[in-house]
Amino acid sequence: MKNWKIDSDWTLFLDRDGVINRRIPGGYVCDWEEFQFLSGVLHAMALLNSRFQRIFVVTNQQGIGKGLMTESDLAHMHRRMYESIRESGGRIDAIYHCSAVAGQDDLFRKPAPGMALKAKNDFPEVDFSRSIMVGDTPSDMQFGHRLGMKTVRIESEEESAGPPEEVGAHFPSLLQFALTVLESSIAE
């Protein structure tokens, strides 16, 4: 990250499960009662708010496609997540999701670029070359890499990292990433 020169016009794309909240191995977070913020995430979001021009969440939610939850369930969960982050001093400018099931040919399912292209359409100032994708799966890294973003891998016990050329940096948590971003901006 030393050569990234992140300044206040950069954009941050965040995966949800495994980055913001606890992933349920082999399952899906289908309602707010199952949603658990990972340690330090609310503090991290407040720190990141001060550093990035735009912050987006991009998340595959095939639980909808499998009939395990509804769009309304997801909207309720995201509303509560957003409120908790805002109350802690953080910000999310928009949340994009794809409900397609893995294996379906859908432009919006990561690693396809649809959610990022929608964000750029909604916020034309977004420049993918001045963006960072933070995720915990190979598809997150492919998503960012294909669009020319910097990529940050949050370590996960369930997933392999993906091809080394697609992973720009590794961190044990979103909080550690946020602290490093702030430390590097102070040093510049």
Written description of the protein model:
Helix 1 (41-49) runs parallel beside helix 6. By secondary structure, the protein is of the alpha/beta class. Helices cover 33% and strands 15% of the residues. A 6-stranded parallel beta sheet has the order 3-2-1-4-5-6. The protein has helices at residues 41-49, 62-65, 71-87, 114-122, 138-146, 174-187, and strands at residues 11-14, 54-60, 94-98, 131-135, 150-154, 169-171. The model has no long low-confidence stretch (mean pLDDT 92). The protein has one domain: 3-Layer(aba) Sandwich (Rossmann fold), CATH 3.40.50.1000. It has 6 helices and 6 strands, in the order βαβααβαβαββα.
Give unreliable regions as ranges.
none
Widest β-sheet, arrangement of strands: 3-2-1-4-5-6
How much of the polypeptide forms β-strand, as a percent range? Answer: 15-25%
Top-tier CATH class: Alpha Beta
What summary fits the major beta sheet?
A: 6 strands, parallel
The radius of gyration computed from the alpha-carbon positions, rounded to a whole number of angstroms, is 15 Å
Number of H/I helices: 6
Mean pLDDT: 92
Shape, principal axes of CA atoms: globular
Secondary-structure element order, N to C: EHEHHEHEHEEH
The tally of strands reads 6
Classification by helices and strands: alpha/beta
For the record, the CATH architecture stands as 3-Layer(aba) Sandwich
Q: What is the helical fraction, as a range of percent?
A: 25-40%
